[in-house]
Amino acid sequence: MTSVLNNAVTAGSTFSETLANVTGYAPDLNIVEKLWASYYVYMANDILATGLMLFIVHEVLYFGRSLPWIIIDCIPYFRKYKIQDTKEPDFKEQWACMKSVLLSHFMVEALPIWGFHPICDYLGIQIDVPFPDLKTMALHIAVFFVFEDAWHYWMHRGLHYGPFYKYIHKQHHRYAAPFGMAAEYAHPIEVALLGVGTVGIPIFWVIATKNLHMFTVYVWVTLRLFQAIDAHSGYEFPWSLHHFLPFWAGADHHDDHHRYFLGNYASSFRWWDALLSTHPKTQRPKSGQKEKAN
Ligand SMILES: [Zn+2]
Ligand SMILES: [Zn+2]
């Protein structure tokens, strides 16, 4: 049973049969809404459907978005756009990183993902169709970006404090010249703490406004994931987003954090680091000191 379309549509024996049933019942829905509704009707178990979709979407998007950066690393033409062009991540390093990230996804993220639907249900995050209009979704996502960035800035800055760095955040700084897949290479405590910014902020939003759709959450998580992977790509192009949106952080901003260790703590935007002067160039270690703290 599913709450999508008020249980008015029955599942077919195949997914395409279910899609035909949904189309017959609600012909005005767009194709994404029809696929979404059919998936929930076909699965007939909302908890399993949401958990499975979130987990698969996360894995496919994370590694799918990392793959182009691995390919770009192999193409000499792109070398001129590499920010730290003397440091090439080798295959062994990337393989070790991938194994660690996969293990972390299964161990740390599996539980919140499986518990996500009951929480959403309790809080009133909608899964029904049609989806909210684009303006509403864009507004929600913009709010999440701004608040996640603030959360990330302060938590990340805190993680650079002595013992927190030594026992937690040091793992993420293993790569002084980052690459896409290193985005989520971090200690489980860090994954959980920074994950609050991505998942917790939509939860606070729905508690405050009682207005949030699960599809908006998916789009938000996707964009946030792409932002994190691209920020770790190690490449700065003439067409990088921050050239058009000067307050956007991107790889240009985060690569310096890995290289110089201090400053540039924010995730998506440059305003917190600008406001509080936590820029690597203002805190760069003086000559004679090591560039990267260990
Ligand atoms: Zn850091
Ligand atoms: Zn990083």
From TrEMBL:
GO annotation (BP), single: lipid biosynthetic process
Superkingdom: Eukaryota
Residues spanning the membrane: 39-57
Domain Fatty acid hydroxylase: start-end pairs: 142-278
Chief location category: membrane
Pfam families: FA_hydroxylase
Subcellular location: Membrane
Keywords from the named record: Membrane, Monooxygenase, Oxidoreductase, Transmembrane, Transmembrane helix
Gene Ontology CC annotations of this record: membrane
An annotated Gene Ontology molecular function: iron ion binding
Protein name: Methylsterol monooxygenase
